[in-house]
Amino acid sequence: MEFVETEKVELKRRYTETIEKEIVAFLNTDGGTLYVGVEDDGMVVGVEKVDETFKKISDIITDSILPNAKEYIQLGSKYLDGKIVIEVKVDKGDGLFYIKRFGRSSQGCYRRIGTTCRAMSENEIEKMHSIVLGSKTKITSARGEIQNPTFKYLKLLCSESGLNINDSTFVQNFHLQNESGEWNKMSDLLCDKNDISIKVVRFAGNDKSSKIILRNEYGGKCLVVAMQQALEYCIDVINQTKTEFDRGIRKDIQLFDRDAFREVWFNACLHNNWIDGTPPAIYVFCNRIEIVSTGGLPSNLSKEDFFAGVSKPVNDELAKILIRLDMVEQTGHGIPLVTRLYGKSVFEFLDFFIRVSIPFEYDVRNDYIMVDEDSTPCLLNEPYYKPYYKYGLEDTTVNLGKKTRDNIMSVLRNNPSLSKAGVARIIGKSSKTVEWHIKKLVDEGLVRHVGANKNGHWEILS
Sign of dihedral through CA atoms 301, 303, 309, 315? Predict the structure, then answer.
């Protein structure tokens, strides 16, 4: 074996009291392996008093670290070049670990920074402790703030996806109350009116010191609707297309890949620490678009597992709802898709946040003008945009699926022989959603099918 110190490998010539700091640092960061009996330059010198050293390290694991860390640590040995090297494998822990005799203080809490372990500041300890508590408290068990919620949006979204709603079991099936029968944080997120505010902020330059030229807020309503609003604004308006001609061949270039952005954005909402109360946000610059979510990596998920596409939802019950609504898939292909297109460097893992910066294919000038209609800032060459979800609850059933139905009508008008599955592929919706809308269009006398299923065609009646 060749030994080289890295952020996940620590080398020790012999046993020292600093080993407990190294183990705590690995537990509080991304895990790693400690080798005793190896010089800093990688030369194997071996351990002379093997049994005694084993016992000392075992005592550290058992008695010197809190919370109990035994399940995250494996103690073993290797026989190399006629010498014995002790190997301590440490997984990332799911809590804030510290040296028992120093308590949860800067003397007892450590993190791995590069090839060294560093004492955490009191502010870092307090924040990490808060994040850990938040990650262990599920949104289905935390008490909500809204005491009389309604769920018209959510029920309509379910109907659009072909899901049957039973009002008598709706609250139970969607886990909207905790074990005590109180409305929980999940109900706060999914009810019709809440205090959630998802921001899309556009800057005139390449950093936040530049002028803010556009600030859209999507919130105050069901999280699923707000997520979709922000997504559609970014991929339909922000994601401009540039046309180039090379030797007579036309080439359309989009600012960024819409599928990659969708994966990042929905993951940010799904894995966000909603207990902390800070929603994810989108920031648009001239050269990139950033998505920031709170909470950091999920507990017990290393960076290697994250990039490999291992799926460990922070909010598992919310994930199940989004899967049922055909908004996400638990296949783990999202992160590998993003890294294949943009590389791992677009992900930045901060202490309590994850920032993803998707670069633009070309820089854009964020100049702006004012639209007379309601004085809303609008970018040059960008059409005035009104999200189709901007309406009151009183006409929800009419408007929530209007854009989908308009798209279906347009496709059928231009391609009357298409099957329902073919329509679904073109407009990017599930087959169940398209079938539900076409049935409504037929019932309302707007569309009809003439002839057999295979050889027939659609007629637009209005």
Answer: positive
